[in-house]
């Protein structure tokens, strides 16, 4: 497939051999399964895989609906820059010449998007347009776009973002302000000098497009890479480990991991790449970083990932480093819990259940790799985090803010004695409840939605005095608790008061938080008759798996059997166990405990370690 040439990556390939005939056969069956799983757009929805107006290395076909939306967005960006330029005192001619351009990135740019995928879009603007303008002027302009819905800005995010849908197509907008007086239509982002005099948020925003372009440049065969990445993305989504915000791996991280395996096996087919992916990733010696090329220091005064220099970089558990300058860690959100969950999933797909090996030898099918996660069957106890408001628009912002802090709660839970693992689910569940009494509103805010309220429609409450609509988003965290030691008697105490209280304080520190319109309540579901009520409603609910609501299960999915009851305690058993305001003073050796729970053979792992970088 390739001729001899200098290798791509930081080490020579493990093998340059061509794939076997059997590997080619299973690659064909993999592609058939990916089509059955609806990961490709249909011919009628052919993809446009490059930044708007640029073909790049992609095969360009025309999805007229997406292209039309991107064209309308490009026009709005130019209009936005024009209006801001006039407000800054520029002449009509200078305002027209100020330009503005959009670039796509993410799965769309990489050419692995599927039906319903969002389009990550970077808005590049000249130096006189500020980030405040982006949220105060561009966001309202998006609301005025025909067929635009669910417009919501999150200016305080690590990478500030505006989310929306236009004609049903989801778009995520980032902004980067360059140190240029105008943005020409033929602008390319390849020049590192464009990063001069930019703040960190603009550098991060530019990184998406620059990283995608560099990834495509660093893989031996783009089509093999895309087919392999489609498979791994689908697997990660089905196993509920595809989410950067919740401490798992996001799209960039998965893209880099697959690219690295393609570098190590440059002549392999997609089926062979997928097979090797799970084995190598399970064996990887974290925190050794995954690199697609050597890290470049560069001439600019911007921060480059360097664990020898920056203590924060040394704390990264699974460093997967972006290849474009300046190098950054795409997995800084990974926690001790999420690292072990991801590692266990690598093991299940690779050397544990041997799913891929069985596919290779013909004793299993690819569909087995894409089986749905068992998150809501897996744990005996769950935390339920509920954010609620009274309007749809406010709920988008408030729920997004709460979700962005879930990882902090997980990290605090990891220090709790007797708690082995805190497993966040990768998405929240949205519900709209139409209430006719204050009591119903209170119950909904606490996660108790009766069948009567659940079936009620908006028409049912129209004209009724005291009626209101509550918008809520519910997030879940599975809790794995240590088994009771042999010989121990009586109930054990699981004190999660400190992490839950600190989490409540953290979300209420949001600058736009309003106690009169936003809900965040903490209670123990087993104490429903004696709820601990705060001035601000928040909900962190301690659930047994049998008490999970029906909406977390797919239609026809059997709910888990009721868990065995704990022995009854003395007369104080109705009280919450979360009473101590102090953080437990004994830090858990979490990785050691988890490796025991998941029976990870560390000796085997060390013996077969694959290292491509030595710090």
Q: Gist?
A:
The protein is α+β, with helices and mostly antiparallel strands.
Please write out the topology:
Layout: H1 21-36, H2 64-87, H3 92-97, E1 101-105, H4 107-110, E2 119-125, H5 131-143, E3 148-154, E4 161-166, E5 169-177, H6 200-218, H7 222-238, H8 251-264, H9 270-283, H10 311-314, H11 336-352, H12 355-361, H13 375-378, E6 381-389, H14 392-413, E7 419-424, E8 429-435, H15 438-445, H16 451-455, H17 458-461, E9 468-481, H18 497-508, E10 518-519, E11 539-544, H19 590-597, H20 602-607
Parallel strand pairs: 2-5
Antiparallel strand pairs: 1-2, 3-4, 4-5, 6-9, 6-10, 6-11, 7-9, 8-9
Helix pairs in contact: 2-5, 6-8, 7-8, 7-9, 8-9, 9-11, 14-18
Q: What does the model show?
A:
Mean pLDDT is 83; it is low at 46-62, 524-540 and 560-615. This protein has helices spanning 21-36, 64-87, 92-97, 107-110, 131-143, 200-218, 222-238, 251-264, 270-283, 311-314, 336-352, 355-361, 375-378, 392-413, 438-445, 451-455, 458-461, 497-508, 590-597, 602-607, and strands at residues 101-105, 119-125, 148-154, 161-166, 169-177, 381-389, 419-424, 429-435, 468-481, 518-519, 539-544. A hairpin with a 6-residue loop joins β3 and β4. Strands 6, 7, 8, 9, 10 and 11 form a six-stranded antiparallel β-sheet that branches. A five-stranded mixed β-sheet has the order 1-2-5-4-3, with helices on both faces. 36% of the residues lie in helices and 13% in strands. By secondary structure, it is of the alpha+beta class. α2 (64-87) crosses α5, α6 (200-218) packs parallel to α8 and α8 (251-264) packs across α9 (270-283).
């Amino acid at each position: 497939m390739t001729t001899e040439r200098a290798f791509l990556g930081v080490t020579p390939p493990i093998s340059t051999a061509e794939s076997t005939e059997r590997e080619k056969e299973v690659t064909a069956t993999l592609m058939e399964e990916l089509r059955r799983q609806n990961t490709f757009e249909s011919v009628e929805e052919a993809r446009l895989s490059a930044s708007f107006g640029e073909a790049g290395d992609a095969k360009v076909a025309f999805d007229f609906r997406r292209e039309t939306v991107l064209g309308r967005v490009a026009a709005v960006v130019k209009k936005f820059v024009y209006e801001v330029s006039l407000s800054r005192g520029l002449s009509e001619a200078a305002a027209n010449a100020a330009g503005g351009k959009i670039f796509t990135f993410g799965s769309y740019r990489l050419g692995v998007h599927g039906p319903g995928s969002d389009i990550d879009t970077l808005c590049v603007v000249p130096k006189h347009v500020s980030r405040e303008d982006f949220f105060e002027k561009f966001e309202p302009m998006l609301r005025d776009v025909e067929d635009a819905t669910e417009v919501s800005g999150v200016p305080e995010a690590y990478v500030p973002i505006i989310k929306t849908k236009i004609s049903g197509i989801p778009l995520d907008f980032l902004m980067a302000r360059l140190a240029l007086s105008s943005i020409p239509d033929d602008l390319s982002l390849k020049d590192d000098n464009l990063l001069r005099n930019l703040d960190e948020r603009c550098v991060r925003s530019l990184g998406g497009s620059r990283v995608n372009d560099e990834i495509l440049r660093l893989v031996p065969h783009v089509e093999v890479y895309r087919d392999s990445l489609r498979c791994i993305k689908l697997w990660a989504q089905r196993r509920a480990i595809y989410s950067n915000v919740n401490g798992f791996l996001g799209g960039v991280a998965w893209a880099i991991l697959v690219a690295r395996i393609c570098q190590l096996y440059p002549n392999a087919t997609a089926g062979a790449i997928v097979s090797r992916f799970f084995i190598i990733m399970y064996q990887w010696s974290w925190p050794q970083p995954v690199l697609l090329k050597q890290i470049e220091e560069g001439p600019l005064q911007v921060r480059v990932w360097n664990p020898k220099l920056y203590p924060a970089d040394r704390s990264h558990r699974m460093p997967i480093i972006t290849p474009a300058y300046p190098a950054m860690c795409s997995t800084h959100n990974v926690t001790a819990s999420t690292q072990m969950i991801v590692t266990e999933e690598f093991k299940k797909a690779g050397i544990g259940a041997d799913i891929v090996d069985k596919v290779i030898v013909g004793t299993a099918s690819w569909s087995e790799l894409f089986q749905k996660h068992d998150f809501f069957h897996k744990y005996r106890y769950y935390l339920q985090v509920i954010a609620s408001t009274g309007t749809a628009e406010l709920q988008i912002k408030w729920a997004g803010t709460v979700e962005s802090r879930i990882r902090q709660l997980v990290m605090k839970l990891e220090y709790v004695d007797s708690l082995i693992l805190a497993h966040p689910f990768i998405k929240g569940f949205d519900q709209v409840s139409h209430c006719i009494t204050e009591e119903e509103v209170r119950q909904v805010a606490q996660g108790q939605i009766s069948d009567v309220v659940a079936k009620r429609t908006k028409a049912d409450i129209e004209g009724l005095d005291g009626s209101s609509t509550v918008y809520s988003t519910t997030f879940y965290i599975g809790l794995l608790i240590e088994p009771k030691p042999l010989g121990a008697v009586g109930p054990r105490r699981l004190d999660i008061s400190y992490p839950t209280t600190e989490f409540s304080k953290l979300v209420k520190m949001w600058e736009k938080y309003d106690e009169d319109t936003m809900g965040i309540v903490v209670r123990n579901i087993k104490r429903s008759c004696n709820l601990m009520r705060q001035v601000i409603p928040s909900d962190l609910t301690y659930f047994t798996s049998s008490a999970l609501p029906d909406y977390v299960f797919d239609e026809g999915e059997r709910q888990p059997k009721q868990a065995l009851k704990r022995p009854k305690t003395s007369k104080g058993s109705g009280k919450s166990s979360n009473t101590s305001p102090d953080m437990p003073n004994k830090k858990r050796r979490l990785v050691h405990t988890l490796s025991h729970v998941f029976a990870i053979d560390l000796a085997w792992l060390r013996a077969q370690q694959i290292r491509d970088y030595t710090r």
